[in-house]
Amino acid sequence: MSNPELIASIATMQEASRRAKQRGTLALVPTMGALHDGHLSLVRAARAACDAVIVSIFVNPMQFGPNEDFERYPRSLDSDLEFLKREQVDFVFLPDKAEMFPAGDTGTLVEVPQIGNRLDGAFRLGHFRGVATVVAKLFHITLPDMAFFGQKDAAQVAVLRAMVRDLNFPLKLIVCPTVREPDGLAMSSRNRYLTSNERAQSLVLYRALSQAHSEAHSGIRNAGKLRDTMMRVMQDEPAAEMEYVEVVDPDTLLPIEDVSEGALLAIAARVGGTRLIDNVLMPPARSVQCG
Ligand code: AMP
């Protein structure tokens, strides 16, 4: 088991990527660290699909609002590197803030209008501008043939699909299914913030999605009815403060009336101070088989 090559400089990463691409295909898995099995499922899918794998670890200040958790976002570099060594990752790209954003707040921004202001974008102003800007930079720095993202962040997937299409990035964006704890809670670095009480209360998101999903399976096509079901289940847990409960088109993130042609059921809520998101995609077969 060899250690991944750790690279902090953009110039060195670009050079290493160019060399790796001469030998075969190259995958990128962008992360903010504090790795869990959800991240590792992306790494395994990348490993299976490409000859070489880069994992980036960068807690991107540009995607956090002024009152959000940038400072206290979990950081666990030593154990992250141990995981990535076990997964036989070739390169770990860990730039610091000055390397990624030398122009500070005056640099070029990538904006995906409309889609970027829906779902999470409506509650976290500027969030998807920060995501799109950093991911565009990571694509230019690492030059991947394929880039791997999780369905867990469904709005992010919609924003990045639009960006890849609109800016003609020469790569394939691969979306992997949400990895869950045995009781259904979607894995997230932010789950570390939850007390055991809050951890139990957080299961309401999965309960609401599961209930609506099984109603859809039993033939209910009306999006409003499915949304009502999710709202009812969410309201049974007073500790969960809802941000949104929506049934939308997975590409445009606009509300739909009928789920026959596919739908994204999506919820965001706060439990304690922790913001949680989860979703179910119908039908789920839009993503490739991962992990
Ligand atoms: P993050 O470190 O939270 O920015 O996540 C990095 C990548 O991992 C993103 O593409 C996420 O969608 C993905 N991811 C996070 N949690 C999960 C999960 N539970 N299942 C699958 N992918 C995930």
How would you sum up this structure, described in words?
With 291 residues, the protein is α/β, with parallel strands linked by helices. The protein is built from 10 helices and 9 strands. It has helices at residues 10-23, 37-49, 77-86, 97-100, 120-123, 127-142, 154-166, 196-201, 203-217, 223-235; strands spanning 5-7, 26-31, 52-57, 91-93, 146-150, 172-176, 240-248, 263-271, 274-282. It has a 6-stranded parallel sheet, with helices on both faces. The protein has a 3-stranded antiparallel sheet with strand order 7-8-9. Helix 6 (127-142) crosses helix 7 and helix 9 packs antiparallel against helix 10. The two termini are 20 Å apart. It binds adenosine monophosphate. Adenosine monophosphate binds next to helix 2 and strand 5.
Average pLDDT value? 96
Helical stretch tally: 10
Largest sheet data: 6 strands, parallel
- Give the helix proportion (percent range): 25-40%
Strand content: 15-25%
Oligomer: single chain
